[in-house]
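S.,

As promised, the calcium ion run. Input:
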Amino acid sequence: MEKILIIEDEIDMVRGLKDNLEYEGYKVISAGDGLEGIARTQKEKPDLIILDIMLPKMNGFDVCKELRAKKINIPVLMLTAKGEEVDKVLGLEIGADDYVTKPFSVRELLARVKALLRRTGKPYEQIKSYEFGNVKLDFKKCIATKRKKKIELSYFEVEILKLLIAHKDEPVTREEILDQIWGLEAYPTNRTVDNYVVRLRQKLEDDPKAPEHIVTVHRIGYKFLP
Ligand code: CA
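Predicted complex:
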């Protein structure tokens, strides 16, 4: 049974999440402030952490940073409020794996939890860096270096690249990308994948209109060519 730790001080929120997650078959534990959250993480070694930002004693940003500084790489799903800087949450500085914005639907949260747990330990998640053509990729820092120029990559850009690179020379369908990265129950459409690929080509290809590395496989999806 997979164990989920909820770090949140709002009792009603904890109760609601706990009921729903237990109904889905997870074991659920909770902590009511940031320091207790870190202590429980170390003691209980959960498979996933749901972490609120507004917390007594230590806020969620600092909790996540502290866990990563301790080399604890348990996936973290952050609960954010509207207007909070999502790129910062997912970036290197904080190191969370995904987020949902309050107020969220239970369905959305469960989809994110499932997707994160499924992704953990996937072979493509083990790729930390990669080089091709004149591009060097550092997935831990979410940075590409192209002819010595540093280019920032977003969370989903990194995930798509890792997945395509793990299957290099083979076509990967859009559905597979959605399934692996977002989870089938999440909301993005096939068009979402195309939009990310366009951005990746603009960042990494010499001629984004005639890509040599992230190529389209007609009627199927995409293929990475080293
Ligand atoms: Ca809170």
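The pocket of calcium ion is lined by residues 8-10, 52, 54-55 (CB under 6 Å). The two ends are 39 Å apart (CA to CA).

- D.
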